[in-house]
Design a protein that fits this description.
Elements lengths: L22 E3 L9 E4 L12 H6 L4 E4 L14 E3 L3 H12 L8 E6 L4 H14 L4 E5 L2 E4 L2 E3 L10 H13 L4 E5 L2 H5 L10 E4 L13 H12 L4 E4 L12 H16 L4 H8 L10 E3 L6 E5 L4 H12 L6 E5 L9 H12 L2 E4 L9 H9 L7 E3 L13 E5 L3 H12 L5 E5 L6 E4 L2 E4 L2 H9 L9
Parallel strand pairs: 1-2, 2-3, 3-4, 5-9, 5-10, 6-9, 10-11, 13-18, 14-15, 14-18, 15-17, 16-17
Antiparallel strand pairs: 6-7, 7-8, 12-13, 19-20
Helix pairs in contact: 2-4, 3-7, 3-8, 7-8, 9-10, 10-11, 12-13
Length: 459
């Protein structure tokens, strides 16, 4: 492909429009001769600081937001100044991969909770109805039945990877693509240049306020995406269906049915497909224990989702509900006491533990969670089963190591008929301490505990 063939460059004067393009990147480390480099100012690094380096490495065109004089660039270098580098990167990525979103019916799902489940239900119904469909979600990407390793651990991969996935879907003759869309992905323009036919909003509640300045800004970002699509579907607040565990999942199912109906899938066909749907990994996933108590793993990590999960599980057991969870560092700190109160209000036993402490003291996080405990109903217990208080109030424990918390619940707390739910990590395969991602799995920790062992993070 030649520079002049990239539609987004048509309004710019290029010195060498017929030069061949070998690729596009915003990572200076990936620049080789023939590459277009887009300089982006990130949270920790600014691509503009590496412009002279990428020119020496053979970049044929540099795109940035600063003036040519400001970056002291050699006058012979082809440089384009734009108002928004992220926006231009998305447009160039779309051009490079043949504008794949125009050749697909694209459905995007956003919301504070329920995004992953809703995208997977839509994908399942379309696939079960005989349609060729692709999926990109927090749990990975699929083209038809084929799982694609994107190497990404975020909801929305970078815009180049995303366009490559969409291009592969077009090549595989997919008619539809279902994308989970996060507020970070919208704000960081990881979906720039991608045209959505239908946008879905599952719900909006305070979340990611560490990143967005306030709730109003967070809502604006979500609605910016919703209003960009040709059509939109907004989830209801209650459900009439009762096919999946919990009302929240049935709301997701009804939303997916409405989407598929708009796409021309008959309701009877969609309902039949829905009956064979299984919740995604780490979403109210029950573990096989061989014990007389039940264990669930769930991704609930907001006050609203924790409350919904606990209220649902409360309907499944007449005995004790045991809840294990933490709150991630460098995230909205205001939710910590709220979640502590919800858990001690609804669960007989709560265990506050680690969930991606990152650079923050885990004991500080746990103290902030326990500060919200409903002390009219709960009391703090010692960290061993020998000192369990009499069953007059709900109790809570502080156990910083997540593996120890899970083992303690399974081997020291749980009794016949009890139910344990481990919230916050769900499908995730790592835990962050001091900026380092260590291998971690709640499901593996449960397996260890059932064998009388404890899964530990060596750091």
């Amino acid at each position: 492909m030649k520079l002049q063939e990239l539609r987004s460059l048509h309004s710019y004067k290029l010195k060498n429009p017929k030069i061949s393009v070998k690729g596009i990147t915003d990572d200076s480390r990936k620049v080789t001769p023939g590459i277009i480099f887009v300089a982006i100012a990130g949270l920790t690094h600014d691509g503009h600081d590496f412009i002279n380096e990428v020119v020496k490495k053979g970049a044929i065109l540099v795109v940035g937001e600063r003036s040519k004089e400001e970056i002291h660039l050699n006058k012979d270098t082809d440089y384009i100044q734009v108002s928004d580098s992220r926006e231009m990167l998305g447009k160039l990525a779309s051009d490079w991969y043949g504008n794949p979103s125009k050749n697909l019916t694209l459905i995007g799902v956003t919301g504070t909770k329920g995004k992953t489940t809703t995208t997977h239900i839509i994908y399942h119904i379309l696939k079960s109805s005989g349609e060729k469909v692709g999926l990109v979600s927090t749990l990975g990407a699929y083209i038809g039945d084929r799982k694609i390793d994107t190497g990404a651990h975020v909801t929305n991969p970078d815009v180049l990877t995303l366009n490559k996935l969409l291009s592969d879907m077009v090549k595989a003759n997919c008619k539809y693509a279902v994308l989970e869309v996060s507020s970070h992905g919208i704000h960081q323009k990881r979906i720039s240049g991608i045209k959505f036919d239908l946008a879905v909003l599952t719900n909006i509640a305070p979340e990611h306020l560490d990143y967005h300045n306030n709730f109003e800004e967070y809502k604006k970002v979500k609605m910016l995406f919703i209003n960009s699509a040709k059509e939109r579907v907004i989830s209801g607040k209650s459900a009439r269906l009762n096919l999946l565990p919990g009302e929240f999942n049935n709301i997701n199912a009804e939303t997916a049915l409405e989407v598929c109906e708009k796409l021309g899938i008959g309701k009877k066909i969609a309902l039949k497909a829905l009956k064979s749907f299984k919740l995604p990994e780490g979403r109210l996933e029950e573990m096989k224990t061989g014990k007389a108590f039940r264990v669930f793993v769930d991704f609930a990590h907001t006050p609203q989702s924790l409350e919904a999960v606990l209220k649902y599980l409360r309907t499944l057991t007449a005995n004790r509900l045991i809840c294990i969870f933490g709150c991630a560092s460098e995230r909205d700190e205001k939710k910590r006491p709220l979640m502590g109160r919800i858990s001690t209000d609804l669960a007989e036993v709560s265990i506050f533990t680690a969930e991606d402490p990152r650079h923050e003291d885990i004991n500080k996080i746990i103290s902030e969670i326990s500060a919200g405990a409903d002390m009219s109903k709960a009391e703090f217990a010692a960290d061993n089963a020998d000192n369990l208080p009499q069953k007059t109030k709900n109790i809570f424990y502080k156990i910083p190591e997540r593996g120890e918390a899970i083992t303690f619940a399974i081997n020291n707390i749980a009794q016949n008929g009890d139910m344990i739910v481990i919230c916050g990590k769900g499908h995730e395969k790592s835990m962050n301490y001091n900026g380092v991602e260590y291998p971690w799995s709640d499901k593996k920790a449960v397996d260890y505990a059932l064998k009388g062992n404890t899964l530990a993070i060596k750091r």
